[in-house]
């Protein structure tokens, strides 16, 4: 979906938390994918200046991907209920890296969709959370939405879903976490529901 900004989202109560500024409205076109397909998402520091780094190195924090089953991905609003998480990654104690740090060189990350998901149309939402200003009450969310159609004979549906906005609160520890407090990174839990 087309978004009009790549600035960080700091108001967790905004409807833009779902698909970013301008992304609540659908566009024409779908990407058809098979069961268990790989989806690659790319984040850029600038939509215009390609010489800028893909991700700012200081923007450290977790990553996640959510899906929302819809009747029409071209027409459905992104904000609201029905979202479920299919992947997340926080702090990797083995490598000593946050998820965002791993993908800073390319600005891309790839996930594999769970096999057996109910066939049909979905919105797919990648999400990065930069925690460098979290102590000031300014967590920075970066997101957008992709319109996909999952093919095949799957019939799995999520046990529970969440509403976006509403899936995180500004007071949540995962949103206010101090990334500069060394030794505590391994205790970090990613925002929102479990996968």
UniProtKB/TrEMBL annotation:
GO terms for cellular component: extracellular region. GO terms for biological process: cellulose catabolic process. It comes from Aaosphaeria arxii CBS 175.79. Has a modular structure: an endo-beta-1,4-glucanase catalytic module at the N-terminus, a linker rich in serines and threonines, and a C-terminal carbohydrate-binding module (CBM). Its cofactor is Cu(2+). Its EC number is 1.14.99.56. This is AA9 family lytic polysaccharide monooxygenase. GO terms for molecular function: cellulase activity; cellulose binding; monooxygenase activity. Residues 3-188 form the Auxiliary Activity family 9 catalytic domain. It comes from the Eukaryota. Lytic polysaccharide monooxygenase (LMPO) that depolymerizes crystalline and amorphous polysaccharides via the oxidation of scissile alpha- or beta-(1-4)-glycosidic bonds, yielding C1 and/or C4 oxidation products. Catalysis by LPMOs requires the reduction of the active-site copper from Cu(II) to Cu(I) by a reducing agent and H(2)O(2) or O(2) as a cosubstrate. It is an enzyme of class 1 (oxidoreductase). Keywords: Carbohydrate metabolism, Cellulose degradation, Disulfide bond, Monooxygenase, Oxidoreductase, Polysaccharide degradation, Secreted. It is found in: Secreted. It catalyses: [(1->4)-beta-D-glucosyl]n+m + reduced acceptor + O2 = 4-dehydro-beta-D-glucosyl-[(1->4)-beta-D-glucosyl]n-1 + [(1->4)-beta-D-glucosyl]m + acceptor + H2O.
């Amino acid at each position: 979906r087309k978004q009009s900004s790549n600035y960080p989202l700091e108001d967790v109560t905004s409807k833009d938390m779902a698909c970013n500024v301008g992304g609540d409205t659908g566009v024409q076109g779908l990407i058809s994918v098979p069961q268990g397909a790989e989806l690659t998402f790319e984040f850029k520091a600038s939509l215009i200046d390609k010489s800028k780094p893909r991700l700012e190195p200081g923007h450290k924090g977790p990553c996640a991907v959510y899906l929302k089953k819809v009747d029409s991905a071209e027409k459905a609003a992104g904000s609201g209920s029905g979202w479920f998480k299919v992947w997340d990654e926080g702090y990797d104690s083995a490598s000593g890296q946050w998820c965002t740090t791993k993908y800073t060189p390319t600005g891309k990350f790839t996930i594999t969709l769970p096999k057996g998901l109910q066939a049909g149309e979905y919105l797919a939402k990648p999400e990065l959370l930069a925690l460098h200003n979290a102590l000031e009450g300014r967590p920075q969310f970066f997101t957008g939405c992709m319109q996909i159609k999952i093919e095949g004979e799957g019939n799995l549906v999520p046990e529970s879903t969440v509403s976006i906005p509403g899936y995180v609160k500004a007071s949540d520890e995962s949103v206010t976490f101090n990334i500069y407090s060394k030794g505590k990174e391994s205790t970090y839990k990613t925002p929102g529901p479990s996968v």
